Amino acid sequence: MNNEQPIIVGLDIGTTKIAVIAGRKNEFGKLEILGFGRANSNGVKHGQVLNIDETIKAINAALENCLASNPGLEIKEVYVGIAGHHIKSLQTRGDIVRQNTEEEITRKEIDQLVADQYKTYIPAGDQIIDVIPQEFTIDNFQNIPNPIGYGGVKVGANFHIITGDKNAIRNINRSVEKAMLATKDLVLQPLASAAAVMGQEDLEAGVAIVDIGGGTTDLAVFYEGILKHTAVIPFAGENITNDIKTGLGVLKTQAEQMKVQFGSALSNEAKANAYITIPGLRGMPAKEISVKNLANIIQARMSEILDFVTYHLKQVGLDNKALNGGIILTGGGSQLKHMIQLTEYATGLNARIGFPNEHLSGGHIDELAKPMYSTCIGLILKGYNDYENKNKQMSPGFVKVQMTEQKTETDMPEEETINVEDKKLDMKPRRTLKGFMDKMKTDLIGLFAEEEDTKF
User: What is the radius of gyration, based on Cα positions, of the chain?
Assistant: First the structure.
């Protein structure tokens, strides 16, 4: 363990779960997880904190689980993810004429250029969350990724500015503060997820990160090494669950379990004669649900989400095979069966699942390698980026905390496994007339075979 590095904590406030992960980089530059906790989220809808009290309870529960996994931890500051349909983005241009042209360009001058963008006019009620430089120009030279150390008279840059609703941002900050924590920074969730699942090769090739969460689907598009576009699509896993609940007339818990256990994003891949048996409520008869119908509902909603992705790619002119790295799917919704095939069919681009284990050291909890924790691990990486570039001061300094004995997945708090009156859902093919006749034929053959065996 490298005790010369600060411990950084990511807090992912999601629609279905709240996760807290504490990590520290080792001598090989990989993240070693020092603590992990999660809790079910009740106060968040479509990525926005609505019920502050419920959100505080969930944050405290996740913190308790994290501290229980490693009692030596002390958590005071957190990097927090932000999403929601209120998130918007715009492009701006900024330039400064240097006072001292005899010297090389310094970090202070670039920081001033970035700070000037916070004065950009935005609609009333909105607030700038982040200003991200795209490419710099120095005098007549363009597409310079990092101008520090160059010489020149005029320095300019294109910027990607991310804004959000003031009230939504205030609700997140109040929830974190009332949980006795300090927000070190608010980070757009698709950018955090991108940091966790994307490598340098992906950045150069050009990729679209599609993070399918519980309440929103987050999109970040990278091309020629720079961030080109971000968007938050207000449809995700919870919409699919609600569609199943309404379309098939089942409880929400049953709909969620069917989606996870038997759901498919492609109806053509679902078995036509397979059925799921749902236990009846209070003495009512059991209900049989067609797996094909379930897949039809999931495919319809997933296709709608991917249509939004295609629309955003067209907006920035990056559809039609322009992204050589294709689409990286992450988040809990990416784990649906046949999701890759549907994405490739709907967008015409290659697709793969993005796992956050690329940046994790060996021996981590298997649970954390799931796509649903991409955002939280990306928040820690964002914190390290700030620390290494001296963007922020980390406190309380360097603390010696050893990794506890890693727990297996079975020791972790239960995932959102759903039991309906303690009965598991069964999936079985419906009995046809042919199947019944075949069984009768087999039984008769068996009967005569037994009689022949008893003869001497």
Answer: 26
Per the prediction, the chain carries an average pLDDT of: 84
The reported pLDDT for the residue numbered 364 is 67
Reading the block at residue 389, the tokens are 């570039």
Q: CB of 142 within 8 A of CB of 156?
A: no
Q: Report yes or no: 46 and 5 within 8 Å, Cβ to Cβ.
A: no
Residue type, 452: E
Question: Residue 1's closest CA among 441, 400, 411, 289?
Answer: 400
- pLDDT at residue 163, rounded to an integer: 95
Tell me how long the chain is. Answer: 456
The CA-based angle 347-134-377, given to 5 degrees, is 70
**pLDDT exceeding 70 applies to what percent of the chain?**
84
pLDDT digits (tens, 9 = 90+) for 110-163: 999 999 999 999 999 999 999 999 889 999 888 888 899 998 899 999 999 999
